[in-house]
Design goal:
heterodimer; A: 118 residues; alpha+beta; elongated; B: 276 residues; 4-stranded antiparallel β-sheet; 8 strands; 23% strand
């Protein structure tokens, strides 16, 4: 009972795996002179704990469930599943290249849409 | 922050020398660290630029006009993404077979020198330098966008009947350029029938020519744009309708906004390969 109580306390104190805000401002890195649009973009990042048992919203795979289960029995044997991006989307960028030509390009996997334990 | 650290290191160094006459190694260490950090930052920037498909950091000229069409295309992409939540990276343009294109590049033609200026009003040769398109990109489509400004009927007494308003805009690939003894040898790429009472941008398909220019750049002699009447006779218009060359009276910003634009749609396969 005592162990369970302390475990649940720990679980509450650790934040679960989720998406966090991360704005990448091109002006901050001094790239606003060649990137015409957008001025920056919401990239997001994934961070948090993947606790046992894995909840449905954590978007986990069967393997992640097994890994988390083994970790819950023997933490020294295997680490917990990782909190990583499970869904990404592209962004469009309008910029000037090295030859002063205007380019519009779609870049894959630039924005985190969803996080999960894998 | 690095600069501040370096300054602080130097200041401490000087102070120690002033008061004790000893040379501190701390300043040197900070400077070495700072050098390492600068290298790290440069490496990080270079890897990011590589990810963006750029060899070096672009240093654009200060007064560069961004073509309106490219801005509109960007806005459209943003609207589509917001409304339909598209996860793919393809750029779809209505009426263009762009397929899996994810890159759009725009090019202005090389303006001829004064002594090379073409005298004809209904036939203009436009030469483009497309050597900046990386080899990894597969060309899907290319179009030549030409602006034409409406002609007011009362200014042109020759315009009487309805058929007088209808003209043809043709794009010909130059196979062999014009010489002193011989006219240029060309092949027709695309034709548009236009009504000169309207102002609009016309799009002419140049895909076969641009594909050829990319594979064999020495065969790139440009494209001839013909502005002729429907019956094939040369134009009798006194005022200029199609914006193919810079006007003597026109200002630079108007010319930059209305000059011909070559737009290429290509598929950059590098990121896709890495993903696989």
């Amino acid at each position: 009972e005592g162990k369970r109580r302390s475990r649940s306390h720990k679980r509450k104190s650790k934040e679960q795996c989720r998406r966090h805000a991360l704005y990448v401002d091109f002006k901050d890195v001094g790239w606003d002179d060649w990137i015409v649009a957008p001025p920056g973009y919401q990239a997001f990042y994934c961070h948090g704990d993947c606790p046992f048992p894995l909840a449905d919203h954590l978007n986990s795979t069967n393997h992640a469930i097994v890994q988390t289960l083994v970790n819950s029995v023997n933490p020294s044997a295997v680490p917990k599943a990782c909190c990583i991006p499970t869904e990404l989307s592209p962004i469009s960028m309008l910029y000037l290249d090295e030859y002063d030509k205007v380019v519009l390009k779609n870049y894959q996997d630039m924005v985190v849409e969803g996080c999960g334990c894998r | 922050q690095e600069t501040a650290l370096l300054v602080a290191g130097n200041t401490n160094n000087n102070r120690r020398e002033d008061y004790t006459g000893e040379t501190s190694e701390k300043g040197t260490t900070i400077r070495e660290n700072s050098g390492q950090r600068t290298k790290d930052i440069q490496a990080l920037e270079s890897s990011l630029l590589k990810m963006f498909g750029l060899g070096s950091r672009p240093r654009p000229r200060k007064k560069l006009e961004i073509p309106q069409y490219m801005l509109e295309l960007y806005q459209k992409q943003m609207q589509i993404r917001d409304s339909e939540e598209i996860m793919g990276g393809d750029i779809n343009v209505r009426g263009k077979f762009t397929g899996s294109a994810n890159t759009v590049r725009s090019f202005h033609h090389l303006e001829p020198k004064v002594h090379e200026a073409q005298s004809s009003t209904d036939k203009v040769t436009l030469i483009f330098n497309i050597s900046s398109v990386p080899e990894e990109e597969i060309l899907k489509a290319a179009e030549l966008r030409i602006y034409r400004e409406q002609i007011l009927q009362h200014l042109e007494p020759s315009l009487k009947r309805k058929r007088d308003f209808r003209y043809k805009l043709e794009a010909h690939e130059v196979i062999k350029p014009q010489t002193k003894n011989r006219d240029s040898i060309t092949r027709l790429l695309d034709t548009k029938i236009i009504d000169i009472r309207n102002s609009s941008w016309e799009s002419l398909d140049l895909t076969p020519a641009v594909v050829k220019w990319r594979t064999t750049p020495r065969k790139s002699h440009g494209v001839e744009v013909h502005f002729i009447r429907l019956d094939g006779r040369p134009s009798e218009l006194k005022s200029s309708h199609v914006r193919l060359r810079r006007s003597i009276n026109g200002d630079d910003s108007t010319w930059q906004a209305q000059r011909p634009l070559l737009v290429t749609y290509s598929d950059d396969t590098r990121s896709k390969r890495t993903k696989r």
